[in-house]
Write a structure and sequence with these properties.
By secondary structure, the protein is α/β, with parallel strands linked by helices. The chain is built from eleven helices and eight strands. Helix content is 40%, strand content 13%.
């Protein structure tokens, strides 16, 4: 049974757990710069993810693998300076946590100290449990990420739906329960069958945020460039475009170019 929506002046990890308990869905979007983060925060989004998807949408790489810890700290710092309400979660990039729990802790400490982020997010389950423990023991909140994990794209070979087979689905459920037991405050499930995602959300007490995981979870996350239609080459089934900024921005810039060429801009009222 849901209760009246609480007006959170500042979202914390505790807020998200309360929201799940109260039946209130959690909204989450990515942001990578000050201006966009200010808009997203003002619009009332609960969680801003400074995702390693910056590797794709900001730097133009094919995968998330090339982005570095220094890059992530730069983007996260820009976002944190803009935010007054949302919880800011920062992705640990590929290579900064998988091989050594001590390195995972060092990477997380750098993010927290140098960017001011509020939490970190790691991809994986039992295989990175020691890294998660190390980070949590230092008092740093951790968000998990299971299902399609883009940092493992060369292992999977494609971005297709994960955990369709029983063995992989069972492991995902076990990993979700493990992440809860370790102390993660939340979990992202990416591109898995909706019925499985709902089962996971019902089996653990921490919030489950989905992307391509159906509506039976506790919240949703999208990449801001995809949701606003700035990226017109990406059209997965789970994506709902709320604007078509690619067309609108292209048209606006084209009008600007035409006005400059025709000497219409600047006019008499636009000069000193």
């Amino acid at each position: 049974m849901s209760v009246a929506k609480k007006d959170y002046k500042r979202i914390t990890v505790k807020s998200l757990v309360e929201m799940k308990a109260n039946g209130e869905k959690i909204s989450m979007l990515t942001a990578y710069d000050y201006t966009m983060a200010k808009i997203v925060d003002t619009a009332g989004v609960d969680v801003i993810l400074v995702g390693d998807s910056a590797s794709n949408v900001m730097a133009g790489y094919e995968t998330t693998l090339p982005i570095t810890l220094d890059h992530m700290i730069y983007h996260a710092s820009s976002v944190v300076r803009a935010v007054q309400r949302a919880l800011v979660v920062v992705d640990l990039p590929f290579g900064s946590y998988q091989s050594d729990p001590k390195e995972a802790l060092r990477s997380s400490i750098r993010i927290m100290k140098e960017s001011g982020g509020h939490a970190v997010k790691l991809e994986g389950g039992s295989e990175i449990k020691d890294s998660i423990k190390k980070i949590l023991n230092a008092g740093i909140p951790v968000m998990g990420h299971l299902g399609l994990t883009p940092q493992s794209i060369y292992k999977f070979g494609s971005y297709t739906v994960r955990a369709k087979e029983d063995a992989e689905a069972e492991k995902l459920i076990e990993d979700a329960k493990l992440l809860e037991k370790l102390g993660c405050f939340s979990l992202v499930l990416e591109k898995i069958p909706a019925h499985l995602a709902e089962k996971v959300a019902q089996s653990i007490s921490i919030p489950v945020i989905g992307i391509g995981a159906g509506g039976g979870v506790d919240g949703q996350v999208l990449v801001i460039h995809d949701m606003l239609g700035m990226n017109n080459e990406f059209s997965p089934r789970f994506l709902r475009r709320y604007l078509n900024l690619y067309e609108q921005m292209t048209a606006a810039i084209g009008n600007y170019v035409a006005d400059v060429k025709s000497k219409d801009f600047p006019n008499a009222n636009e000069q000193y």
